[in-house]
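hey so i finally got around to running the thing on that chain from the lab meeting. sorry it took forever, my laptop kept dying and i had to restart like 3 times. anyway pasting the input first so we r on the same page abt which one it is
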Amino acid sequence: QLQLVESGGGLVQPGGSLRLSCVASGFTLAVYTIGWFRQAPGKEREGVSCISSSGNTIAYADSVKGRFTISRDNAKNTVYLQMNSLKPEDAAVYYCAAGHLGDGSTVDDMCVTLPGSWGQGTQVTVSS
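ok and heres what got predicted. didnt touch it at all, straight out
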């Protein structure tokens, strides 16, 4: 079973920044496409960003383009999500998941996630 652990969430004021980390445990993250997803109370889960195993293919949700940056350090078995200019609507539990590269340009099409690969999530709260 693939085990991913998210961290880096917290409370931040609008306009602030956070960097989330997704660390793989017990397997080599380098061979997997990794996606970040979020879910706010009462809302459907949304694909935020996705990065291929090589890092050469990346997708973002329109709602975060220009503000969020996904990256990976395979040597550290870690994928990051740098979130800048945070808005109240970015508040959610953020999850990472491993999978393989699919067809399409949207996050959900690109990130074909594997069941059981999802982390427990990290809470992001954006409030003044």
